[in-house]
Specification:
The chain has 23 helices and 28 strands. The protein is of the alpha/beta class and 766 residues long. Strands 6-13-7-8-12-9-11-10-14-15 form a 10-stranded mixed β-sheet, with helices on both faces. Strands 25-26-22-21-20-27-28 form a 7-stranded mixed β-sheet, sandwiched between helices. It has a 5-stranded mixed β-sheet with strand order 4-1-3-2-5, covered by helices on one side. Strand 21 and strand 22 form a beta hairpin.
């Protein structure tokens, strides 16, 4: 007889099953409950500090089937790292239950990212007979807020910002009903017991009426509305109203960087952009990122939304509030980060009122606190592969699994621009959400807050702290002020290549092509056009773009025409051909800038690929000054003719390291300008010239070393044309090519690379 008096079969077995990975907050316990009861098994399931633990008991065949089916039929948002099962003594239980979470022990459980509203919840949202009809905070075990509301683990309601909302009787019944979709859904709520939406005017008074309907009216009237989302506030404006978009840009101090647009559904996205099968999958996936898509011509979008750009950042609604607003507004609307340019997104209500008060005409807000600010993710497709440009909401803090474990706990503090941080232990690297450029107090506070939250959430006590070599980076200064840790300085471009290696679960060696704008070189110069032979622990600089002065230092980054002057000097000296438009446009300062560069006054040498792209952008008249980092290179890519087959050639100059003669490319550009060659052709030929130089450099390194694998990393490899053409050329030359998959190639992936280098050196230490 069992402990509850039920007759038992002659043979019963019991196993204890542990599941680790992203298995909390994704409906895993209800799933286990359903599987066990379907198979007629007794036992229990619960969360603990490492994941999910279950014991099942019953007929041996049924137990075996449970263990086999458990990972195969798991919820869609679960990410299972390991499943282990061991026999334990049968106790006679025939019923199955979900037990209280056990928080004892070292915490080692990933937290689910935030998940877009599922189809079942959307059906209820639009069903007039449902008690959650038009309720802006509808969710279930398959969707809704996760990381942005989690204060601690195990993932239970009391450890989230929903703790202040006591469930009503109806919600409690759903929560405790194993047959219900909201069984143990921690954010479960309804209009009777959950958060409430409010529309406030600029002076803080309640506008009244239906907040969503009134917000749509304000948008149609050309006003700017701050909208509280999952991980912070956005600024919304009618995307077809040029005047409204221009006012938003002026108030936000975001002069030209493209703005993202939200549309109601896939059909609306297709009306604005070309949407292939891979892009469609990304738009509709539960991560719901902003997807960069080729724009259609002659749409109703206002020109200031994405000026001089052939692409448009598009996202579909991913919260009930967004779904309701998109339906009420009936057209595309800008939904951009709620911040002043270069600041982090506002996420607390007081912070939003303070920092967005001069921008927004109204605030669509609610009373569910956001614990962790998380901006939207941005992604594009190259060929059939996704390329993350910004890894944030929907992805963070899901761990990036590594091929080998970290010997000790690691903190990597990232770079200065596009900063992320990474904490790592075991085989899990927890990469933070996008933090931004560490240039002001708000962003630095977000940086330190992310470190505190991740180390506490995942029980990481850093023994090793990895940082960039640049002594003036705020992230570096933070690292070197820590006590009781081993510091590991990692060269910027080695971190890029290590990031690509670890992203692909490879150890090297590879030929690493690290092309970006700026990175502190070990020789004191500014690197950025590097060819390395590298593994995770070590690297050797074997080639680079020939250095030129960076005239005026940071001024040359803001004013690409200065780089045109520097590269023209390198190409021609005092014999620059007459009639160049870039010289004429800046005649009043041209000679002074050349003098500064030649004298080496505030003009450090740089091998930067990004600055070479800047120079060519200025030469062909695309961009003389920029309002955001990388703008000139981005716009040069936009004007390039993708069907142009011609390309320039750049010599490889002997030396150790060898150099790529950027002057050859500049001279070819000038010659085509003098012939009257159209700008799109020149831009494309320059791109193909860079590709040819990369291929030639890699070929030289392979001949000397035998290494035939190439890793591409750095912000320049966000360029679709460059990546597509480089990969095709290298593969045609017999190379195996690694590109980024799970982390961005830009500086958003630096912290992951730093962590990988620190771990490799730790493993190699005596």
């Amino acid at each position: 007889m069992s402990v509850d008096g039920t007759p038992q079969p002659a043979t019963r077995v019991r196993v204890r099953v542990r599941v680790e990975g992203v298995v909390q907050g994704v409906g895993f316990r209800p799933y286990v409950y359903g599987l066990a009861t379907t198979l007629g098994l007794g036992g229990f399931v619960g969360n603990d500090a490492r994941g999910v633990i279950a014991e099942v008991e019953g007929d041996p065949a049924a137990v075996d089937m449970f263990v086999a089916r458990l990972p195969a039929e798991a919820p869609a948002m679960a990410v299972i790292d390991t499943v282990s099962a061991r026999p334990v003594t049968a106790s006679g239980h025939t019923t199955f239950e979900i037990v209280a979470s056990d928080a004892v022990g070292a915490r080692d459980v990933p937290v689910s990212p935030d998940v877009a509203t599922c189809d079942d919840c959307l059906a209820e949202l639009h069903d007039p007979s449902d008690r959650r009809f038009r309720y802006p905070f509808i969710n279930c075990t398959n969707c809704g807020p996760r990381y942005t509301i989690v204060r601690d683990v195990p993932y239970d309601r009391r450890a989230t910002t929903m703790a202040g909302f006591a469930m009503c009787d109806d919600c409690a019944r759903e929560y405790h009903d194993p047959s219900d979709r909201r069984f143990h859904a921690q954010p479960v709520c309804c209009p009777a017991c959950g958060p409430r939406l409010t529309l406030l005017s600029a002076d803080g008074s309640d506008v009244g009426g239906d907040p969503v309907v009134e917000t749509a009216r304000l948008l149609r009237d050309g006003l700017i509305v701050a909208v509280k989302g999952l991980g912070g506030y956005h600024l919304a404006v009618d995307a077809t109203d040029a005047g409204a978009v221009t006012r938003l840009r002026s108030r936000k101090h975001r002069e030209e960087r493209p703005l993202a647009v939200m549309v109601a559904d896939l059909e609306a996205a297709v009306s604005l952009c070309e949407v292939g099968a891979h892009e469609q999958a990304l738009l509709t996936w539960p991560t719901a990122p902003i997807v960069l898509l080729p724009r259609r011509q002659n749409t109703a979008l206002a020109e200031p939304v994405a000026p001089r750009n052939r692409s448009l950042g598009v996202m579909l609604p991913y919260t009930p509030v967004h779904h309701l607003l998109a339906a009420a507004f009936g057209g595309p609307f800008v939904l951009t980060s709620g911040n002043v340019s270069d600041e982090p997104i506002a996420y607390s209500d007081d912070d939003a009122r303070s920092r967005l008060g001069a921008i927004a005409d109204a605030f669509l807000t609610h009373d569910r606190p956001i614990h962790m600010r998380v901006d939207d993710s941005v992604i594009r497709v190259i060929g059939d592969r996704p390329l993350l440009v910004r890894r944030s909401r929907g992805y963070a803090p899901q761990p990036v699994m590594t091929a080998v474990p970290f010997p000790r706990h690691v903190l990597a503090v990232g770079a200065e621009l596009k900063n992320t941080v990474c904490v790592a232990k075991g085989r899990r690297a927890y990469l933070s959400q996008h933090i931004g450029d560490l240039e002001n107090y708000e962003t630095f506070a977000s940086f330190t807050g992310a470190i505190e939250h991740l180390t506490r959430l995942f029980d990481v006590t850093p023994a090793v702290v990895a940082h960039d070599l640049h002594p003036d980076y705020l992230s570096t200064k933070y690292a070197v002020e820590l006590h009781g840790v081993d510091l590991v300085g990692v060269q910027h471009h080695h971190a890029h290549i290590a990031s690509c290696l670890a992203d692909n679960s490879e150890a090297g060696p590879v030929i690493g092509v690290a092309f970006d704008g700026t990175g502190f070189g070990e020789d004191g110069t500014i690197w950025g056009g590097e060819i390395l032979v590298a593994d995770l622990a070590t690297y050797r600089r074997v080639g680079h773009i020939a250095t030129v002065p960076l005239p005026g230092g940071a001024a040359a980054i803001r004013e690409p025409w200065r780089m045109a002057a520097s590269h023209l000097d390198a190409a021609y000296g005092d014999a620059v051909p007459d009639g160049l438009a870039v010289v004429a446009r800046h005649r009043d300062r041209w000679d002074a800038v050349r003098s500064v560069a030649s004298a080496g006054v505030n003009s450090p040498p740089t091998s930067s690929a990004g600055r070479l792209f800047d120079a060519v952008a200025a030469l062909v008249g695309v961009r003389d000054e920029v309002s955001y980092e990388g703008q000139a290179a981005v716009e040069l890519e936009q004007v390039a003719d993708p069907d142009e087959a011609g390309g320039y050639r750049a010599a490889l100059l002997d030396g150790d390291p060898f150099t790529i003669a950027g002057a050859d490319l500049v001279r070819a550009v000038v010659e085509d300008l003098q012939r009257g060659t159209p700008r799109p052709a020149i831009a494309a030929r320059f791109h193909r010239g860079v590709v040819a130089a990369i291929a030639a450099g890699c070929g030289r390194v392979r001949a000397a070393t035998g290494v035939d694998v190439v890793a591409l990393s750095g912000g320049v490899f966000q360029n679709v044309l460059l990546v597509r053409w480089t990969v095709a050329r290298l593969q045609a030359d017999g190379f195996r090519v690694l590109t980024h998959v799970r982390v961005p190639p830009n500086d958003g992936g630096i912290s992951f690379g730093q962590a990988a280098v620190a771990a490799a050196r730790d493993r190699a230490a005596p």
